[in-house]
Amino acid sequence: MNIKFLTKLVKTFFRSIMKQLTFFCFLLCMHFSAKAQTDPLTQVHGARSQGMGNLRVHGTDTWSYFNNPGGLAKLESSAISAGYDSRFGIKELGTVDLVGAWKIKAGTLGFGVSRYGGKLFNQQSLGLAFANKLGIVSIGGKLEWFQTQIEGFGSGNSLIFSLGGMAELSPTFSIGASISNLNRSKISKDSETRLPTGVSLGLFYSPISQFQIHLEVEKDIQIKPIVKAGLEYALKDWIFLRTGINSNPSRLFFGMGLKSNQFSLDYAYGQNQALGSTNHLSLGFSLTEK
């Protein structure tokens, strides 16, 4: 038998075995650490929120579509935003997002599309949200299609429902909550592995108009709670400084933002002692001049 043919056959068999082992390891990681593997589903989006410590609950911009759909009801005007996240200097861990919100008589409509990963492993989502304000309460829901794709093993598709809201108890103090994957959707119809279900509770306090204090607790059913704290200070009406901290694992965040009547530019930097640094950039455009 031809030696070259045998060599090629052995290499093909070895690659097949390695793919099987890779897929097995992936499923094992999904079972024990699903949160870390399911971007963009579980990640906080938008450089403003990330600069204050990956805050989720009290955002009041277009990125609320991903983080807490109830926050869309507090938008002053229709807007559209785009963002990019670079994690630990690895291209395959990057996320690209596009999100928008439209003010209508009945409330606020939102849409979002996101893609995470590279050629071998990637996840993407596409969905719609609706939010409305009822007295002191802003509440919203989101329905999205979520796909996980692994080269050589196909893809899994899911429909996910998320809910969130906040209550403004005074002009300077509010509370809020967000629940992602409320229906506990599975990674695919052929798998028993469920996508993460996360609950976030948050407090917001603004002692003066230029200064905001945020405190949150985030709990995924498969991991320990994460405590988050963040600050934002407005140096001027158009420039903002931000910082935040997380537990489990310990992480530090810094950020800044520039804002005009119609445009916004935000940058955030995160530091994880074990893994390295992350960089986040967001651009926003208001469709109606304020």
From TrEMBL:
Keywords: Signal. It comes from the Bacteria. Residues 1-36 form the signal peptide. This is PorV/PorQ family protein.
